[in-house]
Amino acid sequence: RKEVEQDPGPFNVPEGATVAFNCTYSNSASQSFFWYRQDCRKEPKLLMSVYSSGNEDGRFTAQLNRASQYISLLIRDSKLSDSATYLCVVNYNAGNMLTFGGGTRLMVKP
Amino acid sequence: EAQVTQNPRYLITVTGKKLTVTCSQNMNHEYMSWYRQDPGLGLRQIYYSMNVEVTDKGDVPEGYKVSRKEKRNFPLILESPSPNQTSLYFCASSLPGTNNEQFFGPGTRLTVL
Fold first, then answer.
1. Residue A78, SS3?
2. Does B61 reach chain A within 8 Å, measured CB to CB?
3. Which residues from chain A sit within 8 angstroms of residue B91, using beta carbons?
4. Based on the number of CB atoms within 10 Å of its own CB, is B86 exposed (0-12), middle (13-18) or buried (19 or more)?
């Protein structure tokens, strides 16, 4: 079983749609959580951190459920420019070792 | 401009020919790491370094070496590359601590024939 699991997609949605991704992690000692965005084999870039209380950044909302060990990302009013792969990332030790999910590919169509 | 640079960006080589991929960051970050990304397997950590002269194995260290003689540089060395090391490699750096953003380099696409 992978430590961080995501549905690889692709999720094909029309512009303006709301789309949600989930990610599950296996290590209950995980300490911090992130969503990174990766465009077409370019480098990953931080989209947002995920806090226990949930957090929002514009059209993006991230939630963490520690009891069920999953993280979610909600994108409202999808734009063409949101098309990318979204990586769920977990840090489960005191250092900076990150464990990446395989990514969920989103394609927003006109 | 704050950035992580990698060289070369693309490399085609043959089995057994030693190579080095350089990584440099200008953000004075203590932490640096190397990942490889393969289809269906995601990003996997090869080696990481918490500071100068401090390195440790990640999840897939076999066939790789690293060194951290200076804070800004963290080269990845393949002493005897093999075809299963064909991959997309990313270097990353960050400040210490579990909640800090990792900044990635642009990637190095390596093909070993």
1. coil
2. no
3. none
4. middle
